[in-house]
Amino acid sequence: xxxxxxxxxxxxxxWRENVAYLHRECPVxxxxxxxxxxxxxxxxxxxAINAVLNVVDDDHIVGACELGLSxxxxxxxxxxxxxxxxxxxxxPAPSLVxxxxxxxxxxxxxxxxxxxxRDVAAARYTKIELAAFVVATHQTDLDRDEVLHLxxxxxxxxxxxxxGAQVRGGPVVDKHCIGGIPGNRTSxxxxxxxxxxxxxxxxxxxxxxxSPAGTADTMEVLAQVELPFERLAQIVRETGxxxxxxxxxxxxxxxDILIAVERPLALDSPGQMxxxxxxxxxxxxxxHLVLDIPxxxxxxxxxxxxxxxxxxxxxxxxxxxxxxxxxxxTDGHQPIGRGIGxxxxxxxxxxxxxxxxAAPADLRQKALMLAGRMIEFDPDVRGGxxxxxxxxxxxxxxxxxxxxxxxxxxxPRSQPIAAGALVHxxxxxxxxxxxxxxxxxxxxxxxxxxxxxxPGAGVDLLVKSGEAVESGAPLYRxxxxxxxxxxxARALADAxxxxxxxxxxxxxxxxxxxxx
Amino acid sequence: xxxxxxxxxxxxxxWRENVAYLHRECPVxxxxxxxxxxxxxxxxxxxAINAVLNVVDDDHIVGACELGLSxxxxxxxxxxxxxxxxxxxxxPAPSLVxxxxxxxxxxxxxxxxxxxxRDVAAARYTKIELAAFVVATHQTDLDRDEVLHLxxxxxxxxxxxxxGAQVRGGPVVDKHCIGGIPGNRTSxxxxxxxxxxxxxxxxxxxxxxxSPAGTADTMEVLAQVELPFERLAQIVRETGxxxxxxxxxxxxxxxDILIAVERPLALDSPGQMxxxxxxxxxxxxxxHLVLDIPxxxxxxxxxxxxxxxxxxxxxxxxxxxxxxxxxxxTDGHQPIGRGIGxxxxxxxxxxxxxxxxAAPADLRQKALMLAGRMIEFDPDVRGGxxxxxxxxxxxxxxxxxxxxxxxxxxxPRSQPIAAGALVHxxxxxxxxxxxxxxxxxxxxxxxxxxxxxxPGAGVDLLVKSGEAVESGAPLYRxxxxxxxxxxxARALADAxxxxxxxxxxxxxxxxxxxxx
Lengths: 516, 516
Hints:
The structure is a homodimer of 516-residue chains. By secondary structure, chain A is an alpha/beta fold. The longest helix of chain A has 17 residues.
């Protein structure tokens, strides 16, 4: 039932979903009874992709004998415009049988996970099928071997880096935080510290998805972060580190596709989180990982039993995949540091690196703790010495020098970016002691103010938990570039500042990292 | 954050998903940080719709200050081209909180179901969210009150017909089959019989979705089936009946949208099936319904316990919604009649109506049984008399005359359509007695032969269960119009004919309807 058509690139970005555009009067559409949303296979020059069909009534988009492809589909097929192509009803992805078994609540075997992830990575699943997979694996708790097999499958579906030549058998170290805590920009401190200690730390980070800033957004305030892979490898060889944007599509193509569905559904099940994080770290060539699980009432993980279950799941999968893993459960009951938003967070990072007395103490302490645990992956470092070594590197200025070397290698930004010039102070509704700060609320206010698209936008905290405030004194300042943004953010903060203030002073709760 | 743009209709049919097209260089895209797949709200002239964003790089599709809308989105917004419009990040659909509770496995309350279906019907769910809803309600068995509330909500979301003036309190009767049995074209017999008896039977049917023919496709061989609603109502007033295409979008808009997701996922859970069928029947104004549940090894329902559970669920919901329901569990172990495909099935129907000795006995018997049960909804008919009345109507030629009146009223087809001229006989692999015929296999062969897009294509069964065949004698003939179609269908039939033939004759299994 294949028929000959001519390939045309259609300038429509449909993200990771391949879309094929056929004219309603196309003889193939009429003969084969194609309908909008039908799943089709496009074949040209020995290549084949699956796509969802959109039926077109406008000759400007595609002619009657043309087969239009959305940007991603065109790139994936790798065939020039005008090339002959054939289209047919797609055979269902082979792994849909396994997907249906998962929907029915069954446990899947290793080969099922590999088959599903192979099909996902090859873009053989429609958005609808991807959503079905995400919900089905969310609803039926995966057992730990299912999570292991999912992780393995995600690694197998992408490219895997090997830093062996650089490290000669030594560790390739990384750190990762499961997210959810605004301002928590420890990577930009940890990477210079541990690489100044001589460890290889090729750190790639994501941009913000739902948060006011990702590490890549914040680093971009100081230096270029979008670098071709070969350049990145050279920087790592020269400096022992990098702080770049991940561009995960090559290393973990399946993860990239699944996240595009998980994000709008706001689903983040433990199994999917573990598979997503560990597959990316292992594909990036890391051998040793410190993982930060912040716990708090407005964090992703809200109780110690939940944090412990997640820790054990990470540990089980990492051990089976030969990744050395050190999980730290940290205090997530408020934002870390003072700034929320790329420019304000970058300012905090540089204050810490410069040993400025105005540097936020919590950000400094947390970075030293995490860097110390990474340094203890070094076989020549005695257990318990890591924190002191990290502190010496920071206080001696070696961490700052290393950060400057990384910035110089990646390409420094020519002009500094200022914090947003429009400012509004949010006042305390009563006098008392700050008991907690709602991470989700502050993140949302910073996003409405314009972060991360407007790098200078965000929130600057003036008071943190345990500190006393007078009634009417400012709790934090909102920075924005546009009046409308400031108005939206201010309205949200006026409705609820996100701060809980007690009338009577209370002792500060012990930070959980002390217990971990 | 709203911004002014000019509406442009983009001639792309994206089925039920609203898509908005914005140029990558559009200042609004840049300022608000929109990305492909973002969910946006489009506002114009007091109307608002939600849509998924596609980012465009081609000025021919949309200019930098235009807001393109896919065909469905344009129709839904009801605003002319060139009209000013604003776009903003969409607020999440209010019922997504309830959806997340369902994904987490909770039981939902009546108001949750109404909120979800209201949002679905208003196209506030993306395809991804629709898929999440379908999978979540499939995975966690709905209890019967949840199914009731889902059904109620689906009725409330659409238009509801009222035939009160026609029937003056009398019954409005309908029949429905849950599907899965090729050739099972009883509606085209039942409707003329019961309307000849004087009952109002305004039957609307669907076209084939995954089967080789729907009732609407088969009726279309004889008469027009796509009629405006007012014309349909007039035909029903004149003849007491109709046999038309449903065009369900108005009566059950939520069902229409959900089916577009259930179909590609091939998910058909009992709760969704009950809500979908009963909501459409009640919205169409039916007061009395005979429901056919075929049971057999290759039918949708494969065991008597499963059939009984489904029957009780239908009965519970129907009773609560004041629909008189008579559920019949029928023999689904092989196709009904001889023809599979629109033309061949229409031939069978007309043979039965003409009392032709060559008419398939099983189709005739099943139609009389169902018509008889519908006739017993008549308060003036004694229990047990329905079958005899139906037979008298059929044998006297009154059913044929009524069918001719319906055809004349809907508009007869000017030229008869012939069965596909390319024919291949599929031979028996051995001598013996036919024990069973695989419904799914025969349906697939008929579809590959071209049905229903090619109305004359399909399969014509020459031997049914319980009959003896010689080795090499033809079991059925494949009809096609195009050589390629015949080749595909023949290859599938050669691999496995779908017939199970026993060496020794066996007694025919009692048909389950005798037990119902």
